[in-house]
């Protein structure tokens, strides 16, 4: 499989202190790591692409490490995660699907083998395309308080022959969450759902 050619990377952290109501004891932090890589399959149909997932694994681990570092260095503070990809217009949606395994399993590995599936989204678009990446709790997908999203994108990316790959993490529930459902404190962690 081809080498991973990285053009640029961005790591950003958003800190939310309050949402109209009283400030919580601990602000919520949401972080995103974006990597812009050359899409080795851009420009035409290639039948066998799945081997590229193995090539992307080191990038996934590096991005997960950068996110944890940006959130203070302790993986125990991470309660939510998600992933996504924007494929440049010279590629196809399936190229973004190559990020499912290396992106998701890298975060799960660095966070102590979390139980929940890592939510994901992908699309094809040109430079400046934005993507809303869903977030759920790392151990139970049904924890409503942690349903969230982070919008990501870069003005010059992805170019036609590139992909923007993203991982996101958060340190807790939405500020002032109050729509009920399974509480994080009540997770059984048996199936990644509850």
Automatic annotation (TrEMBL):
<protein>
    <submittedName>
        <fullName>Amino acid synthesis family protein</fullName>
    </submittedName>
</protein>
<dbReference type="InterPro" id="IPR009569">
    <property type="entry name" value="AA_synth_put"/>
</dbReference>
<dbReference type="InterPro" id="IPR035936">
    <property type="entry name" value="BB2672"/>
</dbReference>
<dbReference type="Pfam" id="PF06684">
    <property type="entry name" value="AA_synth"/>
</dbReference>
């Amino acid at each position: 499989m081809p080498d991973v050619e990285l053009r640029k990377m961005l790591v950003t952290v958003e800190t939310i202190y309050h949402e109209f109501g009283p400030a919580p004891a601990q602000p919520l932090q949401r972080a995103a790591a974006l990597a812009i890589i050359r899409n080795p399959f851009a420009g035409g149909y290639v039948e066998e692409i799945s081997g590229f997932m193995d090539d992307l694994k080191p990038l996934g681990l590096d991005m997960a490490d950068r996110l944890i570092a940006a959130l203070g260095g302790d993986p125990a503070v991470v309660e939510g995660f998600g992933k996504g990809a924007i494929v440049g217009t010279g590629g196809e949606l399936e190229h973004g699907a190559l990020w499912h395994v290396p992106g998701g399993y890298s975060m799960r590995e660095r966070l102590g083998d979390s139980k929940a599936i890592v939510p994901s989204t992908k699309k094809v678009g040109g430079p400046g395309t934005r993507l809303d990446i869903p977030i759920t709790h790392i151990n139970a997908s049904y924890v409503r308080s942690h349903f969230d999203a982070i919008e990501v994108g870069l003005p010059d990316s992805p170019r036609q022959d590139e992909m923007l790959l993203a991982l996101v993490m958060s340190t807790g529930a939405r500020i002032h969450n109050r729509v009920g459902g399974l509480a994080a404190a009540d997770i059984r962690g048996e199936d990644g759902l509850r």
